[in-house]
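Slide 14.
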Amino acid sequence: MRFSTVRVWVLLAAICLSALGAGAQVPSRIVERIDIKHVGPPAASDELIRANIRIKVGEPYLRTTADDDVRNLFATGYFYNIRIGEEQGEKGVILTYVVQGKPTLTEIRFEGNKKYKRSKLVTKCASKVGEPLNERKLFADAEEIKKYYQKQGYQRTEVKYVVTIDENAGRGTATFEIVEKPKVRVVDVQFVNASAYKQKKLRGLLKTRRWFMFSWITNGGKLKDDEFEEDKETLVDFYRSEGYIDFTIKDIQFDYTQPTRLTIRFIISEGVRYKIGSIAFKGNTLFKDDWLRERMPVGVGKIFTPKALSRDLEFFENAYGSKGYIDARVGVTKVPNTEKGTIDLAFNVEEKQASYIEKIEIKGNTKTKDRVIRRELAVSPGEIFDMVRVKLSTNRLTGLNYFEKIDAKPEPTDVPNRKNLVIGVDEKSTGNFSIGAGFSSVDNLVGFVEVSQGNFDLFNPWFFTGGGQKFRLRAQIGTQRQDYLLSFIEPWFLGRKLALGVDLYHRDLNFQSSLYNERRTGARFSLTKALGSEFLIGSVSYTLESAGIRFDTTNAVSTNLLNEAGTKIVSKVGASLAYDTRNSALLPNRGQRTEILGEVAGGPLGGDVNFYKLELRSAWYFKGFAPGHVLEVVGRVGVTEAFDDTADVPLFDRYYLGGLYSLRGFEYRKVGPKDVFGEALGGDTYYFGSVEYSMPIIDRLRFALFYDIGMVFKSPYSFSEGTFNTGKYNDNFGFGIRLNLPIGPLRLDYGIPITSDPQNKGSGKFQFGVGYTREL
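Slide 15: predicted structure.
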């Protein structure tokens, strides 16, 4: 046995010596030389190429390192193709890096395009002749061309690119091969197995709509890949938000009933609509179970949805956060019961301890002063770490519109149960310079230039930013008007949340009448404050202005008008109270704005005229019958009256109706009292009401139907016929469009009179405005 073992060891030793002897004959894998060979014109110098090569002469050759070199060279962006050749030399491996620079794109061709010319398709390409040929760009270009065909209704059109390269010349040609298919219209969208909701309801959720007679305006009735992907997600989100947690889209069928007609069928499984079966709590000592159940947003018996669960978890976060338990954690276990269609929820609470604010740190504000941020905070050092009030603070900072991003987070300290509140902000540009033009059917063409700063600082003469004030300088010059305005607002006057406003203005208005020009130059000072609620706003103001009427006409002028000629000094105080709950200032669909205004001119205030004004304005907004539809109901009523030695309220402070912003079926300011020549005199009492229903047509374009009613009366507190009046009301109906353009909003209305006085008889009126909001 021992002899055999010795023989085995001798045999192994012989094999090893044989292998070593054979290895002496294997060629060396050391890098002997590195050569560089260019295919076509060189795209980069040899020095740059060698600088991006990790393999060095004299080092062992590893294929993985060579692969890294190829990746590094491609990353420089200079090369179209790279390969490495290996050759055994006398002392080792000779490597040859064969590099081909990106060829220059010398021509872009299109083949198979019959529907659209080359000049149209080339605008969809990011690739440009004269630039390096980039296949990623070409692929993206092919997709853009395909999308364009799809948007025009040619859904099944195929587009691919083919590259032809002349390596020696370093040039390339790209050819887009297009296989055009017939235009296809979506004639129906069906939802198979849908029982919880009507087909019409489900179709209304999607962007992919059936073709109808106005699809040429809405650009609908076509299958677009990007929108269709969104539609699938929308459908799933809708069902799950309604409690159908198990909802799935099993299949989608595209049925071409004809080569140009498409029916889309969603094969769906709705599943069970889950409700909350029971709610249990564990670990809560600060709040009792019954207290939590009574106040939870979504309780037992309510529809279970992911959003509902999020609302309940947010309730826990706010409840504990308001008491300073910012480290509290709440987990939830969901136990579904498919037979009963319920989900039982078990909330597990880890309360920990309450925290207090040690100090508040502001970070990231390079322009905005600390005090501007701190004065918006609803918490202070030493107080309980109330996360509800911290969120209120971040909402206030967001409302300033000074910052791109706002973070408020606790930071541990060395003191037990005390944390620092760190407010981190990322500032954005708050200055704005704009120049443009507008046009309306009343004051014709107007050009404007405006400079504004939303984070102005009057006491920082170097940069004028960071103080939280607002500054605006605007000039409007047109064929019928000249406006100059300088506006300044200090939102925290005397260290309180009391907004001080100062307006200096000059207005020369030629469009008020064909007989005279109106000129106003003055200053207005105001104080505005929220009264116990951010929805209730009170304001007081003082205005001193020079207002005058100048006649420059050869037409006949009545005595009533001639008596108004000249310039008067108006000194007046005003007050207003507004209640505003609108969910948006631009296009609200919920809430209201109601405002009471009053003004007194003259008397102890001095000036040349004595009168007062009282006015009530209210606008209510409601969601319409379909998504995006809005119902707007507006009502206004006002009265003005002269007193003391002033016989009549000045012409420029009376009420007028008619035009784009009131009775749209009548000429501007032509509703109400007139002189013997038919010229508007205005009145001391008016009322106006309007109902408008608007709906979206396409992005940024809305269609509106409206009804307006109103009248202006000569005497104060008189809603009956009086001197120069020939009726108790005028009304109209009509339709219009609203379009948001880069130069500003466009508004076009056509109003048709229903009831009118004899001097306002006529056909419908177009009212048009674009590019700016007229200020009077």
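Speaker note: The CA atoms of residues 656 and 669 lie 5 Å apart.
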